[in-house]
Design goal:
It is a single chain. This protein is an alpha/beta fold. It has 3 domains: 2-178, Alpha-D-Glucose-1,6-Bisphosphate, subunit A, domain 3 (Alpha-D-Glucose-1,6-Bisphosphate, Chain A, domain 3, 3-Layer(aba) Sandwich), CATH 3.40.120; 184-406, Alpha-D-Glucose-1,6-Bisphosphate, Chain A, domain 3 (3-Layer(aba) Sandwich), CATH 3.40.120; 408-541, 2-Layer Sandwich (TATA-Binding Protein). The chain contains 18 helices and 27 strands. It has a 7-stranded mixed beta sheet, sandwiched between helices. It has a 7-stranded antiparallel beta sheet with strand order 20-21-24-25-26-19-27. A hairpin with a 4-residue loop joins strand 24 (470-474) and strand 25 (479-484). The radius of gyration is 23 Å and the shape is globular. The N and C termini lie far apart (53 Å). The structure holds 6-O-phosphono-alpha-D-glucopyranose and zinc ion (ZN). Residues 112-113, 276-278, 280-281 line the site of zinc ion. It catalyses: alpha-D-glucose 1-phosphate = alpha-D-glucose 6-phosphate. One of its GO terms (cellular component) is cytosol. This is phosphoglucomutase (alpha-D-glucose-1,6-bisphosphate-dependent). Residues 1-22 are annotated as: Disordered.
Length: 542
């Protein structure tokens, strides 16, 4: 039986960088999730009888919303729902399922790297038929719809048993509970030389993967320990927990400090890695060296041809604007395309679909390729392992040789979290107003060469995205970028991205913050961070 339930709109359902993210109690308000899901369906056309993929990162409230979404999909006329067993699908695995089974689209329930639990974060995101996040045209339509919605449709069949693999007909719609790992693991076996990696591991290469009590646990266990033969215990925190064990499932140097310390110790394993809540981010640490996401992108792009899936070379590289220019140097030397997009994986979709870019990456720990339309944490780890297996060198040797060949882009991000929203907006507005006066201005030995408010002109669909971050470029190729985070749920987070290019290999061993000290001072001077935010120092430095 299909029920039409009347509802009243919520004014705050505007999707951010990656879907709608709010605290769980906000999602638990009457009809809050239902309104948003119906707004998604109302913004789509032509899905009658088609397949919808549903899955999430296993966080608190995941199962409840999955049941609602299945019943609403049935009431709205979808022909089939494919849902991961236990309600689990990593974000890249969901993207793969949408593509492989030619689904109409998918609903991914995740707040990515944000904490989970009864008072923590939850999120709903819609992905289109190419497997990627919905473009702004659709997210804008969803928001507009959410502001006027007055009813939603839901079927009243009993809850689906999500804990066994099965296929059932629930009053006209098929619900298929699928193995969340199988198709993804098969795709990884196609792209990478599992034989070579297995051989490397059998020769004593030690790897340490932290699943952070989040969604990659079952995937990593299957791939690293079962298929690649890494000893039991190589994958830690592998059981997905609704509250991620009380941790923040963000694979950075703050939240993976234990792994980092271990990798810097004398008896460190050869390779350490981690992924986030929903499995799309990655952290790569070699014995004695942390690889920044920007360097990782450049190194993966430069060596991708060593993996079977990319043996014919790559068409181009795309990176988000705040990501360092390390990848640009690789593209230039290889004669392949390079594209600079706004922050947010959705901007890579058109370039990938058009075959213009093969490998994409962001400073926010995302790397991926045209194999799916999301960034992919385990993919990045496997490409690293494939490269290490073929080259037979250590991570530190590969990174230092890369710098020697291409030069080093010293890079750091300073985050000011939980800043008052008005203060943060005030800082950006003041900077924007100042832009025309900046060229020629000196900060110590640094001279501003150019300054702008980044706008992206999509070369494929010709859409324009304005106000994507303030860039201050200095003579000699150094740069400072200011941007407000689009993924937080409380207050504002100011991100300051700092970068210096150093071609001279005798100067590649300076401590990063020291190498960037004059730029850090210039960032403070140009934006008056302290004056606007009252903060003396960033909360997180990566
Ligand atoms: C999500 C998106 C990424 C993006 C990141 C930026 O993780 O999937 O594509 O780079 O958010 O986050 P921010 O907090 O800087 O807006
Ligand atoms: Zn994520």
């Amino acid at each position: 039986m299909i029920k039409t339930v009347s509802t009243t709109p919520y004014a705050d359902q505007k999707p951010g960088t990656s879907g709608l993210r709010k605290k769980v109690p906000e999602f638990q308000q009457p009809n809050y999730a239902e309104n948003f899901i119906q707004s998604i369906f109302d913004s789509l056309e032509g899905y009658q009888g088609k397949t919808l993929v549903i899955g999430g990162d296993g966080r608190y409230y995941n199962r409840e919303v999955i049941q609602k979404a299945i019943k609403m999909a049935a009431a709205n006329g979808f022909g089939k729902v494919m849902v991961g067993k236990g309600g689990i699908l990593s974000t890249p695995a969901a993207s793969n399922i949408i593509r492989k089974y030619k689904a109409f689209g998918g609903i991914i329930l995740s707040a990515s790297h944000n904490p989970g639990g009864p008072t923590e974060d939850f999120g709903i995101k819609y992905n289109i038929g190419n497997g990627g996040p919905a473009p702004e045209k659709i997210t804008d339509a969803i928001y507009e719809r959410s502001k006027v919605i007055d009813s939603y449709k839901i079927s009243d069949f009993p809850d689906i048993n999500l804990d066994r693999i099965a296929r059932e007909d629930v009053g006209g719609m098929i619900v298929s509970v699928i193995d969340p790992v199988e198709d993804y693991a098969a795709l990884m076996e196609e792209l990478f030389d599992f034989g070579a990696i297995r051989n490397l591991i059998s020769l004593g290469f030690r790897l340490n993967f932290d699943a952070m009590s989040a969604v990659t646990g079952p995937y990593a266990k299957e791939i690293f320990e079962i298929r690649l033969g890494a000893p039991d215990g190589s994958v830690r925190n592998f059981l997905p927990l609704p509250d991620f064990g009380g941790h923040h499932p963000d694979p950075n140097l703050v939240h993976c400090k234990e792994l980092y310390d271990e990798m810097m110790s004398d008896d460190a394993p050869d390779f350490g890695a981690a992924s986030d809540g929903d499995g799309d981010r990655n952290l790569i640490i070699g014995k004695g060296i942390y690889v920044t996401p920007s360097d990782s992108l450049a190194i993966l792009a430069a060596n991708a041809n060593l993996a079977p899936g990319y043996s014919h070379g790559i068409a181009g590289i795309a990176r988000s604007m705040p990501t360092s220019g390390a990848a640009d140097r690789v593209a230039e030397k290889r004669g392949v395309g390079i594209y600079e997009t706004p922050t947010g994986w959705k901007f890579f979709g058109n370039l990938l679909d058009a075959g213009m870019a093969t490998i994409c990456g962001e400073e926010s720990s995302g790397t991926g390729s045209n194999h799916v339309r999301e960034k992919d944490g385990l993919w990045a780890v496997l490409l690293w392992l494939n490269i290490l297996a073929v080259r037979g060198e250590s991570v530190i040797d590969i990174v230092t040789q890369h710098w020697a060949t291409y030069g080093r882009n010293y890079y750091s991000r300073h985050d000011y979290e939980g800043v008052d929203t008005n203060a943060a907006n005030g800082l950006i507005t003041a900077l924007r107003e100042k832009l025309p006066t900046l060229p020629g201005t000196k900060y110590g030995d640094l001279t501003v060469a150019a300054a702008d408010d980044f706008a992206y002109h999509d070369p494929v669909d010709k859409s324009v995205s304005q106000h994507q971050g303030i860039r201050i470029m200095f003579e000699g190729g150094s740069r400072v970028v200011f941007r407000l985070s689009g993924t937080g749920t409380t207050g504002a987070t100011l991100r300051v991205y700092i970068e210096r290019y150093e071609p001279d290999s005798t100067r590649h061993n300076i401590e990063t913050q020291e190498a960037l000290a004059d730029l850090i001072a210039a960032a403070q001077a140009v934006a008056d961070i302290k004056g606007h935010t009252g903060r003396d120092a960033p909360t997180v430095i990566t």
